[in-house]
């Protein structure tokens, strides 16, 4: 049935958790592209047939016209599904830049296609350039501040970090009392957790 | 910021309210609230943002001075909290606008009226966004499709208009509150009188009244 594979692609996209990427399905993608070429060939041959019979392609309404119409509509539907697939994945990638930062962890990078990785780098660059023109870091302060200082526990070994005028050793399981903006970059990467009690 | 609020409290409640509502922080809060609620991007508050930046810088310098000069640490942390909250509002305002630009990049690039609402840096960002996305979609999808179907905004070469651009939903409902008595006026084809109540209506109608 025409359009079934494209529908599968879109369903795959919808079945992933909100905000999470599924691995890029290049097989299914290529199959849909092949289907599109096939539709186009059929479409052209039907139009050619009508032209050979001396009929006006714009106004004649015979079986060939409707056949060509079906191929055209299936092609447009496939194009729409493919664009939706890429566009929505790109949307998720952009949201990852806000959540995770300019460097993606390995398990997410595996799920991207080559073009998507390029897009990620370019968009990251665009964002960085905007922020540097304003001289402002917009990736901190993502939640409204309740306290200026928060209690954090270190989850992963970060080692010695230079902050303001002192160096602190963020060893695993150690607890610290930090400024919110300093701790945020570690919390968003899952290296620290906030102690809310 | 905190000092301006202090001046108002000696002049009686009404005056305090008026004074509070005109401080830059209140204006920023209002702009931030509007931006958050509206589905489309609103006009960039250039002068307000410039003033706020200056004030934030001044406040940071003051706090450093206070921290060094032995003023009660509770007072310093109160000033610090006030500063944090203002900085959050400031960053969040810019962030919300960026995220709207990312969402509707093609709509913005094809629509000069919407483009005029952006700041200079935002315009540059929007242009780069649209270019990157166009290149990405062309490489991954469009170049592999048959000839008449390779356009990014039209479904195919026979489409009469650009039918593939996502646009902000101006028919989504927003809750708005009037700041003063407005009397009867036309909203959605019905006469309404608005005093100080909360009203739910389509976003499209709000922009014409504001």
TrEMBL record, chain A:
<keyword id="KW-0235">DNA replication</keyword>
<dbReference type="InterPro" id="IPR005339">
    <property type="entry name" value="GINS_Psf1"/>
</dbReference>
<dbReference type="Pfam" id="PF05916">
    <property type="entry name" value="Sld5"/>
</dbReference>
<dbReference type="InterPro" id="IPR056783">
    <property type="entry name" value="PSF1_C"/>
</dbReference>
<dbReference type="GO" id="GO:1902983">
    <property type="term" value="P:DNA strand elongation involved in mitotic DNA replication"/>
</dbReference>
<keyword id="KW-0539">Nucleus</keyword>
<dbReference type="InterPro" id="IPR021151">
    <property type="entry name" value="GINS_A"/>
</dbReference>
<dbReference type="Pfam" id="PF24997">
    <property type="entry name" value="PSF1_C"/>
</dbReference>
<comment type="similarity">
    <text>Belongs to the GINS1/PSF1 family.</text>
</comment>
<dbReference type="InterPro" id="IPR036224">
    <property type="entry name" value="GINS_bundle-like_dom_sf"/>
</dbReference>
<feature type="domain" description="DNA replication complex GINS protein PSF1 C-terminal">
    <location>
        <begin position="146"/>
        <end position="196"/>
    </location>
</feature>
<feature type="domain" description="GINS subunit">
    <location>
        <begin position="49"/>
        <end position="134"/>
    </location>
</feature>
<dbReference type="GO" id="GO:0000811">
    <property type="term" value="C:GINS complex"/>
</dbReference>
<protein>
    <recommendedName>
        <fullName>GINS subunit domain-containing protein</fullName>
    </recommendedName>
</protein>
From TrEMBL, chain B:
<dbReference type="GO" id="GO:0000811">
    <property type="term" value="C:GINS complex"/>
</dbReference>
<feature type="domain" description="GINS subunit">
    <location>
        <begin position="74"/>
        <end position="139"/>
    </location>
</feature>
<dbReference type="InterPro" id="IPR008591">
    <property type="entry name" value="GINS_Sld5"/>
</dbReference>
<dbReference type="InterPro" id="IPR021151">
    <property type="entry name" value="GINS_A"/>
</dbReference>
<dbReference type="GO" id="GO:0006261">
    <property type="term" value="P:DNA-templated DNA replication"/>
</dbReference>
<dbReference type="GO" id="GO:0000727">
    <property type="term" value="P:double-strand break repair via break-induced replication"/>
</dbReference>
<protein>
    <recommendedName>
        <fullName>DNA replication complex GINS protein SLD5</fullName>
    </recommendedName>
</protein>
<dbReference type="InterPro" id="IPR038749">
    <property type="entry name" value="Sld5_GINS_A"/>
</dbReference>
<comment type="function">
    <text>The GINS complex plays an essential role in the initiation of DNA replication.</text>
</comment>
<keyword id="KW-0235">DNA replication</keyword>
<comment type="similarity">
    <text>Belongs to the GINS4/SLD5 family.</text>
</comment>
<keyword id="KW-0539">Nucleus</keyword>
<dbReference type="InterPro" id="IPR036224">
    <property type="entry name" value="GINS_bundle-like_dom_sf"/>
</dbReference>
<dbReference type="Pfam" id="PF05916">
    <property type="entry name" value="Sld5"/>
</dbReference>
